[in-house]
Design brief:
mainly alpha, 3 helices, extended
Length: about 130
């Protein structure tokens, strides 16, 4: 009985492993087919002259002859201003004097914005049960 079980165990294990590998390959194939379909759709967009014109207007800010270009800047669209660098303190000429000044004088503290006050929370009603 043991010999029969051992004889059947190896082919059964091989069958199960090949079956799981075939299922994994089928899932990969479906994923690749959907990816191919998306790429073919993108290729169709790229070949469309109207889409190319729209992308040139949007990305490169091209303007067709006769159009009047204008640009609206919203408050969030402005790039942050470059931080102003601190002017270096004047040197006395001796390196040890500059070193002593850098150790003896505390560095300037950066300006911080005040934190907003937390909103008041109403006390719970007597009948309310949290949870």
């Amino acid at each position: 009985m043991c010999a029969l079980a051992l004889t059947l165990a190896v082919p059964l294990r091989t069958y199960v492993s090949q079956r799981s590998e075939a299922e994994q390959l089928a899932r990969e194939r479906e994923q690749l087919e959907t990816e191919i379909a998306a790429l073919e759709e993108m290729k169709a967009h790229i070949e469309d002259p109207a889409w190319i014109r729209a992308q040139a207007r949007e990305r490169l800010r091209f303007v067709m002859p006769g159009d009047i270009p204008y640009m609206v800047q919203l408050p969030g669209d402005v790039p942050p201003e470059l931080e102003e660098e601190e002017p270096e303190s004047p040197t006395t000429g001796a390196w040890y004097s500059d070193l002593w000044r850098s150790v003896a004088e505390p560095p300037p503290e950066p300006e911080t914005e005040p934190l907003p006050q937390p909103m008041p929370v109403a006390p719970p009603e007597p009948g309310d049960i949290p949870g």
